[in-house]
Amino acid sequence: MADTNTSTPRIYLARHGETEWTINGRYTGVTDLDLTKNGVKQVQGTGKMLIGEGKLIDPSKLIKVFVSPRKRAQTTFDLLFAKEEKDRLSKAGRIEVTDEIAEWGYGEYEGLVTSQIREKRKEQGLDQERPWDIWRDGCEDGE
Known about the structure:
Layout: H1 20-24, H2 37-50, E1 65-67, H3 71-80, H4 83-91, E2 95-97, H5 114-123, H6 134-137
Parallel strand pairs: 1-2
């Protein structure tokens, strides 16, 4: 599935593989976690299917690769791209490690599951009329 129309700009997003907190539903933002063995397999499988010459993402055609500084994102990037591809992209100045695309900070809710957050908020007298929703109510001391 090669990209035959390379004149059209494309943006590809790759989420990191599974972590321990992914498995048990904990909110993970700034905490630096490693991938699980299954997470490594997930990323390797994705890389084999999607990345390489003649595939959806041809590293020779990439203009810029932004990578979060979190370990899980760094490991995902390392697993997705072959060493030669990373070296070429790096030498060309096409890899940028930036906090601008790191997962957001969950503040006081970092490492908690939804039920713990809702219980904590009820103890504080919040959410009396409806349960906490991250998109509506946000995170205390978070983004």
